[in-house]
């Protein structure tokens, strides 16, 4: 289901629609007699061009929130709306309303804690392949992949295999891959854990740039409170609930 060209979820004009909306999203994991409520009635509207940090203690549900926002996992209840496209709706149960794989490929970029590069492809091929899956011509894909690697300061390692790169270099290749298809929603789960302070700062600045200059909605899970200056919003996930902090100083260190 997609809202029409001029009207959206709440009667908003399409250009004013949030990049991401989570509506009353609940996620429960059941194993045997145990039920874990990882997300409990979570609501979020993230505008296009907004860059949000997601904080919270271990086990609070941060990764689960990213997986659901990124359509890698269906919510138990609630709806997920990306750029006016209803991806999940509780009334439709577990079934995605769109072909979520195709939607994900075209519109969503992920960066995980570990780079997860394809080991037998070079750095540039790892980025290139993400574009080719979306039917970009190989020559154009290669050129754009090289530009992204240059932007991330690893252009000179384009021809190296992942095992020939340091952890931080691999992670920057993974960031380039996530940006390959100019996603409207970028989700990153502790992307700077393997980086030194300077590189971590550069990656956070890049995320900020992607939101502010390209109009993407960005969520970054981080434990690094020094990075909070790079974010427009600070979200806190605790005991399954999502809340918002207005100032970095409100976040306990
Ligand atoms: N596939 C699963 N099956 C059962 N329980 C799960 C599953 N995935 C997550 N959980 C549980 O859901 C809760 C939230 O997990 P989640 O990984 O989202 O937390 P987190 O905030 O990302 O934690 P961390 O900071 O340690 O990565 C935890 O209690 C976790 O054990």
From TrEMBL:
Matches recorded under InterPro entries: AAA+_ATPase, ABC_transporter-like_ATP-bd, ABC_transporter-like_CS, ABC_transpr_LolD-like, MacB-like_ATP-bd, P-loop_NTPase
Q: Which domain of life is it from?
A: Bacteria
Residues of the ABC transporter domain = 20-252
A GO CC annotation given for this chain: membrane protein complex
Please tell me whether the keyword Lipid metabolism is annotated for this protein.
no
Citing just one GO molecular function, the answer is: transmembrane transporter activity
Keywords attached to this Swiss-Prot or TrEMBL record, sorted alphabetically, are: ATP-binding, Nucleotide-binding, Transport
Q: Which family does it belong to?
A: Belongs to the ABC transporter superfamily. Macrolide exporter (TC 3.A.1.122) family.
Record's protein name:
ABC transporter
């Amino acid at each position: 289901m997609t809202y029409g060209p001029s009207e959206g979820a709440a009667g908003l004009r399409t250009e004013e629609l949030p990049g991401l909306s989570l509506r009353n999203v609940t996620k429960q994991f059941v194993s045997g007699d145990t039920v874990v409520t990882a997300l409990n009635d979570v609501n979020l509207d993230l505008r296009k061009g907004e860059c949000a940090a997601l904080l919270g203690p271990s086990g609070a549900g941060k990764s689960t929130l990213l997986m659901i926002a990124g359509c890698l996992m269906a919510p138990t209840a609630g709806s997920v709306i990306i750029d006016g496209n209803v991806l999940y709706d509780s009334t439709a149960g577990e079934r995605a309303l769109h072909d979520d794989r195709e939607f994900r490929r075209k519109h969503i970029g992920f960066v995980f804690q570990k780079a997860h590069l394809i080991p037998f492809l070079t750095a540039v091929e790892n980025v290139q392949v993400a574009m080719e899956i979306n039917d970009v011509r190989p020559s154009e894909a290669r050129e754009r992949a090289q530009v992204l690697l240059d932007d991330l300061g690893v252009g000179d390692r384009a021809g190296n295999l992942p095992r020939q790169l340091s952890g931080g270099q691999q992670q920057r290749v993974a960031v380039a891959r996530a940006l390959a298809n100019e996603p409207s929603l970028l989700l990153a789960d502790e992307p700077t854990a393997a980086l030194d302070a300077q590189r971590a700062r550069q990656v956070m600045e890049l995320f900020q740039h992607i939101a502010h200059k390209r109009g993407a909605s960005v969520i970054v899970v981080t434990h690094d409170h020094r990075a909070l200056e790079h974010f427009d919003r600070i979200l806190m996930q605790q005991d399954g609930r999502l809340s918002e902090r207005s100032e970095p100083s409100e976040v306990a260190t």
